[in-house]
Structure formats: structure tokens, C-alpha cells
Amino acid sequence: MSFPSLPNPFSSSSSSSSSTQSNTTSPSSAESTALKNQIMQTLQTEGNVQNAKYLIQKVNENCFNHCIPADASTSLTRSESTCLSACMEKYIEAWNTTSRTYIARISREAPGVTAAVGGAGGAGLGGLGGMQGPDVGKEMF
């Protein structure tokens, strides 16, 4: 059984005409910039979500271990509830202070990096995830 000979599409000496080439055009510079900005915003949002999940996990671990005794009943007592509230507030405030301090240090040491970590004002709970616009410097909690 013999097969017909097919032209090699990778050969530089192909006999196909140039009219079969694709007429697609590359995106304009503005479209490329808009796409890049959209991707950066998506990544920053995902970073904020990951930071928030991590913070909640750590608050749960640390505050639960600190405020709830091993032999606790199935419902929270008033003192346990008060302890948890105070612990969470302190933990989140410490997180926000640490984030603001870190971002301020980064902005002093490498000014070009500031935009990548959310601006010099700090980003609160989102931490280093990169809040932009009017929310820069605001704490999420």
C-alpha cells in the first residue's frame, strides 16, 4: 500500500502561496497593556484572597488555642467569647501593622517595587496582595 506524497509544511521551500498565510494581527499596544493590567489585577486579587485565608487560619489556630481550654463544653462561655474577640482584634491589628511597616520598608529600599506590593500606604488585611486606587492604605478589618 502506498501513500501519496504530502508537502512538508515545515519546509522553507514549500510550494504553497503566501495567500494561505493567516491574516490575524497582533493586539495593539493599548490592548496588550489593558490585558496585562487585567492579569495583574487578577493576580493581586488572588494574592489578597490567599492572605485573608492565611490570616483567618492563623487567627483560628492561635486564638482558639489561647482562649478555649481543652476540656471546654460544646458552647462558648461569655469569657471564652470575650477572649476570642479580643484575641482576633489584636491579631488582625498586628497583621495590619506588620503589613504597613513591611510595605513602607520596601518602598524606601526599592521604590520601583512599591506598586507590586500594594503601594506605600499598606493594604491592611490584604497585606502584600496589592490594593490599588482609593483603598490603598485602608485596613480591611
TrEMBL record:
Protein known as: Mitochondrial import inner membrane translocase subunit
Family: Belongs to the small Tim family.
Keyword set, alphabetical order: Chaperone, Disulfide bond, Membrane, Metal-binding, Mitochondrion, Mitochondrion inner membrane, Protein transport, Translocation, Transport, Zinc
N-terminal signal peptide: none
Annotated source species: Endocarpon pusillum (strain Z07020 / HMAS-L-300199) (Lichen-forming fungus)
One GO term (biological process): protein transport
Residue ranges of every copy of the Tim10-like domain listed in the record: 42-103
Function, as annotated: Mitochondrial intermembrane chaperone that participates in the import and insertion of some multi-pass transmembrane proteins into the mitochondrial inner membrane. Also required for the transfer of beta-barrel precursors from the TOM complex to the sorting and assembly machinery (SAM complex) of the outer membrane. Acts as a chaperone-like protein that protects the hydrophobic precursors from aggregation and guide them through the mitochondrial intermembrane space.
Domain of life: Eukaryota
Compositional bias per record (Low complexity), positions renumbered to this chain: 1-29
Quaternary structure (record): Heterohexamer; composed of 3 copies of TIM8 and 3 copies of TIM13, named soluble 70 kDa complex. Associates with the TIM22 complex, whose core is composed of TIM22 and TIM54. Interacts with the transmembrane regions of multi-pass transmembrane proteins in transit.
Subcellular location: Mitochondrion inner membrane
Entry remark concerning the domains of this protein: The twin CX3C motif contains 4 conserved Cys residues that form 2 disulfide bonds in the mitochondrial intermembrane space.
Cellular compartments per GO CC: mitochondrial inner membrane; mitochondrial intermembrane space chaperone complex
Membrane topology reported for the UniProt record: Peripheral membrane protein
Principal location class: mitochondrion
Entry's Gene Ontology molecular function annotations: metal ion binding
Segments for region (Disordered): 1-36
